[in-house]
Write a structure and sequence with these properties.
This protein is of the alpha/beta class. Helix content is 36%, strand content 25%. The protein contains eleven helices and 18 strands. Strand 11, helix 5 and strand 12 form a beta-alpha-beta unit. It is globular and about 65 Å long. It starts with a strand and ends in a 5-residue tail after the last helix. The N terminus is likely disordered.
């Protein structure tokens, strides 16, 4: 691995155990070292064997720094949270983003970065241009449900790996599109790390104890900001687990709470998070009413999802580099691999 090491000459004598290398006047398939004096520093261009785990860790971090991500859509609060999380993680934020037609041509500043918004009619041209400049591009999609399939088809057509955090759309069609294209992707209705762990636990319970709650009734309350139009993908996933556990429940019976007053007074949503929260409650009751269970997860803000999306992008980059046979992943795969920062 070639790199530039700039250190005081006397430091090499004291810290020689960090890097093993040899100096030669001739070329070698294993190393080449060239030095020149400048002020009080000696510059070395070295192919070296790294002996220190801490150095390797820094080199791994350097890969993360170089990873470019394009976040669609940066006009939304979720997209902006992803940009901020990406900047915090040291990723390169591509200064272009997909948005709705009325926002086309606008520039949004997020985390000190100016990002140009492009409308639906320019998507293909813009993505091709971005991909030309950033060959190892990964897209993170937090747009709207009715754009899921069209966006995924464009990413696949262009050969761009992506993280799909947007819920809704035709999920069967989405998976088939990605599978047919052979594109690397992380697709998950839930990007929050701890909520993903909860979902994984629910899947394990459903798989190991099918029918354990047969005969029980289920009540589901799902509260989000008023701008969330569809049923939560997380709620659907949890309900699916309860169904495997023997509970009969129709998605039409989910209580979608979008009224501001009810959210604050009944569910206890803090006023400052009315426009960005996810409060879910699942209540189970036995046939005779003598036994009840309640599962609840309440999230204020968007940082938990944004950080998870960045973890997913880093995970996907590693899978691409290793040429992994598996192409389509979810956040449980990310969690199992220990790829959460």
């Amino acid at each position: 691995m070639a790199f530039i090491l700039e250190v005081p000459a006397n430091l090499l004598l004291r810290q020689h155990n960090l890097v093993s290398f040899s100096i030669s006047r001739r070329s070698s398939p294993h190393y080449t070292c060239v030095s020149r004096k400048q002020s009080n520093f000696t510059h070395f261009s070295i192919s070296a064997t790294l002996n220190s785990p801490s150095i390797q860790s820094h080199m791994d971090h350097a890969h993360a720094v170089a990873l470019p991500i394009m976040v669609n859509s940066c006009m939304g609060k979720m997209g902006q949270a992803v940009v901020e999380a990406g900047i915090s993680a040291g990723l390169h934020i591509v200064p272009a983003s997909f948005g709705i037609e009325k926002d086309a041509g606008k520039t949004v500043k997020v985390g000190g970065k100016d990002i140009q918004v492009h409308g639906p009619s320019d998507r293909e041209t813009v993505l091709a241009s971005v991909l030309e400049e950033y060959r190892n591009l990964i897209v993170v999609d937090f747009t709207v449900p009715n754009a899921v399939n069209d966006n995924a088809e464009l990413y696949c057509k262009s050969g761009v790996p992506f993280v799909m955090g947007t819920t809704g759309g035709d999920r069967d069609r989405l998976y088939k599109t990605v599978e047919d294209a052979g594109i690397y992707a992380v697709i998950s209705p839930q990007m929050g790390k701890q909520v993903v762990a909860f979902l994984a636990a629910m899947e394990i319970m459903a798989g190991q104890f099918p029918g354990a709650f047969s005969g029980y009734t289920l009540e589901v309350l799902e509260s989000h900001q008023a701008t969330k139009l569809d049923i939560s993908g997380t709620a659907k996933a949890v309900i699916s687990c309860f169904q495997k556990l023997g509970v009969s429940f129709d998605l039409d019976h989910i209580q979608l709470i979008r009224d501001r007053k009810q959210q604050m007074e009944t569910l206890g949503v803090p006023e400052e998070h009315i426009n960005g929260h996810a409060f879910h409650t699942y209540r189970l009751k036995s046939p005779d009413g003598t036994v009840s269970f309640e599962f609840q997860h309440n999230v204020c803000g968007r940082s938990i999802y944004a950080e998870g999306a960045i973890d997913a992008a880093l995970f996907l980059s590693k899978k691409i580099q290793s040429k992994a046979d598996k192409k389509i992943y979810d956040m449980i795969d990310v969690l199992r691999e220990g790829s959460m920062r």
